[in-house]
């Protein structure tokens, strides 16, 4: 018998095509040394848990409590915005015009809303006066803001000296003051929703 001829060799596969840039890993590609289930852009676990708790707490609030708490938070934030433009001073923030009063009153209002939602015994004992106390806090915020709306320029010694000498002191209101007032009104409206 005659030996058979060796079988022909198959042709080698073509070389892979080269791309201009290396392929970038996708967002879901795990990072070496890190478990695939761990999020790479996550906060620390404690902060992540705290944020989850805050979101869950806010979702549990009734719509009126959400509006009231949002209004109080808005008043608190807008107290730091510019409230007026004064001659010789330029743009003046609410803190320079005494809005620390607004910060404290809005903080007390928001605290009462949170304590009421949590079922605090102190707030439960105030049940008959609870709404009146909250309306009083909002009324004080609005009275303070209204005073600053009418008299924004009587806070610095330079402006007081100009006024006492008979000079006409022109000042204008900035956006922070009306936004603080609107937030306080929204907080009061939340009590009745």
Rg over C-alpha atoms, rounded to the nearest angstrom: 32 Å
Calculate the terminal CA-CA distance, rounded to whole Å: 104 Å
**Beta-strand segment tally:** 3
- What oligomeric arrangement do these chains adopt? single chain
Average pLDDT = 81
Walk me through what this model shows.
The chain has 193 residues and is mostly helical. Helices cover 53% and strands 6% of the residues. The protein contains 7 helices and 3 strands. The protein has helices at 45-60, 63-78, 100-118, 121-125, 127-150, 157-164, 176-190, and strands at 82-86, 90-93, 172-173. A 3-stranded antiparallel sheet has the order 2-1-3. The model has no long low-confidence stretch (mean pLDDT 81).
Short description:
With 193 residues, the chain is mainly α. It contains 7 helices and 3 strands; from the N terminus they run H-H-E-E-H-H-H-H-E-H.
